[in-house]
Amino acid sequence: DDESEATLRTPIVAVLGHVDHGKTSLLDEIRGSAVTEGESGAITQHIGATAVPLDVISEIAGELVDPTDFDLPGLLFIDTPGHHSFSTLRSRGGALADIAILVVDVNDGFQPQTLEAVDILARTQTPFIVAANKIDTVPGWNPNDHAPTQQTIDAQTDRVERDLNENLYELIGDLSDNDFSADMYWRVQDFQNNIGVVPVSAETGEGIPDLLTVMMGLSQRYMKEEMAVDVNGPAAGTVLEVTDTQGFGTTVDAIIYDGTIRADDEIVVGGVEGPIVTEVRALLRPRPLEEIRTEGQFEQVDAVAAADGIKIAAPDLDDAMAGAPIRVVGDRDVDDVIEEVQAE
Ligand code: GTP
Ligand code: MG
């Protein structure tokens, strides 16, 4: 029956925030925890995207996540740069995202690119939570590696807890100044109308169990219908970057958010001079660090299903545009697909 055809894809999570507030460190910490849990093979490190499967999330989150409560396959995180000059990359990440994490240094508070990120999320109506990062830098902090938030806050002195709360309430005030009603995540009932703030440390891993739990819960609760896709259908995606790849010429790094792309598919890609019709020559996935020396930088794969990041090699990609759509033609009329790409 039809019911069994629909598959739930991985929600795409954009990680946004001001420069140096800890976006990459947060993803590194999540990857590192997975390695510690003996799950390094389960983590796929793609083009600016990190896929974390549900069983790994549940291992990191410990008692906070019961995997049988969820039927989404995990989360696909997209890192974005915080430097002011990369605003197009941030918009692209924000537009692509189903949900987002806004990372804010808890001592530094709202900064110019925090505001910019909030504007992008408001414009694209992307639900988000705030990771109040670097809680370990509150003076006098007593670190409890990888502990859930409540547990580590209970282990702080009254003075440290008061200082942390002061910073957190300042953050909540900044959000409210930008017309977002926000509160500590454990007080939020309705995540559609209130922003949950999760205190974390990318350095010690404190609060990461909570962060993953909240993201998983938010996706499951509010995104499930949107995640139901026909993964076997022709792929749809977005170009993140146009790059030169040794041995393959001009390639595009893309996020696939619907369907499947195969290594010999005909595709249409948005270009400077209009849509480019070409044929996939290779789908390339970066190898784990330890394999690069012996096997080369990339592994060729036969097919990639949503949601995932992948480097696509194909002729005639020189004019491809970052931010442009990619469509697999499949058994459709190529002119219809060209029109679809033009319309986007
Ligand atoms: P851009 O990509 O340049 O926008 O920065 P980013 O947001 O990715 O920040 P990044 O993860 O590179 O971290 C910036 C600096 O902050 C690094 O030196 C990190 O080690 C440090 N840092 C990040 N998170 C934490 C944290 O939770 N605690 C402490 N003490 N340091 C942190
Ligand atoms: Mg970074």
From TrEMBL:
<keyword id="KW-0396">Initiation factor</keyword>
<feature type="binding site">
    <location>
        <begin position="17"/>
        <end position="24"/>
    </location>
    <ligand>
        <name>GTP</name>
    </ligand>
</feature>
<feature type="binding site">
    <location>
        <begin position="133"/>
        <end position="136"/>
    </location>
    <ligand>
        <name>GTP</name>
    </ligand>
</feature>
<comment type="similarity">
    <text>Belongs to the TRAFAC class translation factor GTPase superfamily. Classic translation factor GTPase family. IF-2 subfamily.</text>
</comment>
<keyword id="KW-0342">GTP-binding</keyword>
<keyword id="KW-0547">Nucleotide-binding</keyword>
<dbReference type="GO" id="GO:0005525">
    <property type="term" value="F:GTP binding"/>
</dbReference>
<protein>
    <recommendedName>
        <fullName>Probable translation initiation factor IF-2</fullName>
    </recommendedName>
</protein>
<feature type="binding site">
    <location>
        <begin position="79"/>
        <end position="83"/>
    </location>
    <ligand>
        <name>GTP</name>
    </ligand>
</feature>
<dbReference type="GO" id="GO:0005737">
    <property type="term" value="C:cytoplasm"/>
</dbReference>
<feature type="domain" description="Tr-type G">
    <location>
        <begin position="8"/>
        <end position="223"/>
    </location>
</feature>
<keyword id="KW-0648">Protein biosynthesis</keyword>
<comment type="function">
    <text>Function in general translation initiation by promoting the binding of the formylmethionine-tRNA to ribosomes. Seems to function along with eIF-2.</text>
</comment>
<dbReference type="GO" id="GO:0003924">
    <property type="term" value="F:GTPase activity"/>
</dbReference>
<dbReference type="GO" id="GO:0003743">
    <property type="term" value="F:translation initiation factor activity"/>
</dbReference>
